[in-house]
């Protein structure tokens, strides 16, 4: 947001004059309320007539709603709940996470449409049109016709998932805008995520829904710097149609115009999710999908250090726990041995006291504990049909042995070194390769939880990490479902398309 906005809003029973500069919200109290703010908000009376600075002021509401003087419409400021309120004299300064610019008097919304650069690749915009021409006519007269496809061909099936105990419908669509202005492409396509939900004026819920969509894109692009350049809130005016009623802005974000990772095809397309995108939304909404290990940007992906290692190993441990909630089923001999060991340990605990008893109890808890090495071996073995080709290529190129036991042992030793405070310790041997391979394995585990077929998972990993493997001729059969790899088509962000080109 580039413009300054002014107006009035109410906070804690006081009507303030506000100024919003696109990042910070300033609240100026009326003259008759300045003493109240000074002596009851900022200062605290410790005895009659004696004051001291009170506790730091914090914002205690999720949003503030005001009336904009410039537009005459409402503006909703999403606050950073619990953050400090700065002040100078009696003017308050509040950090803002987002702003909703209302365009109509209707303050309840039932649909959100979000557009960004990444979506134009994930749900390719080149599916929204076709070229119609005669080769001779094109050569002789330069005539080329572009025909847009119907929304039924560019809109995905509507799916439902639960978010914050409310049912949300999600689908993807490709829209277009036409223009006759010089300097503007005659037609411009954009892909969108569309959420439909029960009518609401819970602005914080809308903000959280926005964040959900952002995490969805982050997962599909393996980076965190994903922002929406357009976010519209809409109201329903008949059974089938909506109109824009508000524009949502996230503060201090810069949408990407173009990104080298997208041009290289380094993303997971919607096709790879096999129409199971609602499952991905569900896992993210339940905080059941680990995303903290994602790099900040495409460039940051190549920066591997102790912090990246710890977060990536934590992601693996998390996903392992989700796939094996009851642990790994062991052989009968091992189970019987464990039961015997626990029985004998119980006898020792019963016959001891003091510190020895405490130590024995800790030993009791560790019996059957599965360490990182064991988990790597088990996950690698179970997902071998998916990740083996990636692993062998990675390690062969670096003249290293590809073996799950070796990888697991090396990762465990590396993590132990970092865990004991040796954050400046260099990666031992091929452990940096292990870290890269772990990224492949994590995505395999996550996509399998969504219910994606092995072939689509392999293609997703191949494209996301640009591993240059070829699965084009591979056919994977699972539960009588046969799926062939779909090759991504190259697309561009902006298409300066003219419906009919010709020369006299």
What's the helix and strand layout?
Blueprint: E1 5-11, E2 14-20, E3 24-28, H1 34-42, E4 43-47, E5 50-53, E6 63-68, E7 74-79, E8 86-88, E9 91-102, E10 109-115, H2 117-122, E11 129-132, H3 135-141, E12 145-148, H4 151-154, E13 159-163, E14 166-178, E15 187-200, H5 203-221, E16 230-236, E17 242-250, H6 260-263, H7 277-285, H8 306-323, H9 332-350, H10 354-366, H11 372-382, H12 384-397, H13 404-419, H14 431-450, H15 454-464, E18 475-478, E19 481-484
Antiparallel strand pairs: 1-2, 1-6, 2-3, 3-9, 4-5, 6-7, 7-9, 8-9, 9-17, 10-15, 10-16, 11-12, 13-14, 14-15, 16-17, 18-19
Entry keywords:
504 residues; alpha+beta; 3 domains; six-stranded antiparallel barrel; two-stranded antiparallel ribbon; 15 helices; flat; disordered C terminus
Write up what this structure looks like.
By secondary structure, this protein is α+β, with helices and mostly antiparallel strands. It has helices spanning 34-42, 117-122, 135-141, 151-154, 203-221, 260-263, 277-285, 306-323, 332-350, 354-366, 372-382, 384-397, 404-419, 431-450, 454-464; strands spanning 5-11, 14-20, 24-28, 43-47, 50-53, 63-68, 74-79, 86-88, 91-102, 109-115, 129-132, 145-148, 159-163, 166-178, 187-200, 230-236, 242-250, 475-478, 481-484. The two termini are 45 Å apart.
**Global structural class:** alpha+beta
- Can you summarize the main beta sheet? 6 strands, antiparallel, barrel
Radius of gyration: 29 Å
How would you state the average pLDDT, rounded? 84
How much helix is in the residues?
25-40%
| H/I helix tally | 15
Strand order of the largest sheet: 1-2-3-9-7-6
Q: How far is the N terminus from the C terminus? A: 45 Å
Give the DSSP E fraction (strand runs of 2 or more residues): 25-35%
Provide the number of structural domains: 3
Categorize the overall geometry.
Answer: flat
What is the number of E strands? Answer: 19
